Amino acid sequence: MAGQEKTSRKAAGTAAAVRRPRSHRTNGGAPRGEAADDIGLDALAGHAGYAVRRFQIWIFQDFIKTLGDADIRPTQYSVLTVIGANPGLSQMAVAKRLGIERARLVHLLDSLEERDFVSRVPSATDRRSHALHLTARGKTALAQFKRLAAEHERHVAEKIGKENREQLLQILACFT
Asked: Which residue in 9, 38, 78, 135 is a FRET match for 99, CA 20 to 30 A apart?
């Protein structure tokens, strides 16, 4: 509870600092610089969507930096992870589960297939669709990606705190 109070006070102080009106002029009347920290956010400071989007940008930048040498993007990682956990899923099922447009998923799968991470096998139950499977190389690569993604998640915990990370995951669970 004490940790929550401390976090709440800190968040309230940060929000107040962001909402504080800022002067448009410096001491001598000259225009103030346009450094990012000098620009007020006005009502945006209280918008959850804005805060989530800014956090998403930080998340993606850290993910790309942490997994950069592996040359894997967040959406590719998501697709590989879902296929790895559910071998034989159709493209449509993967697209629906991850909220990816089918046309975009086809492009993603093409690139993953070119890297020999994924194979499309004609479905045994529906001649119009393909079952998705990780190749041996895809399974090995996904294991490496998961280790790097765990490092990325440690960065998230360092940024917002382990307990806050867990609470954030609980809050966001209704959207997954």
From this structure: 135
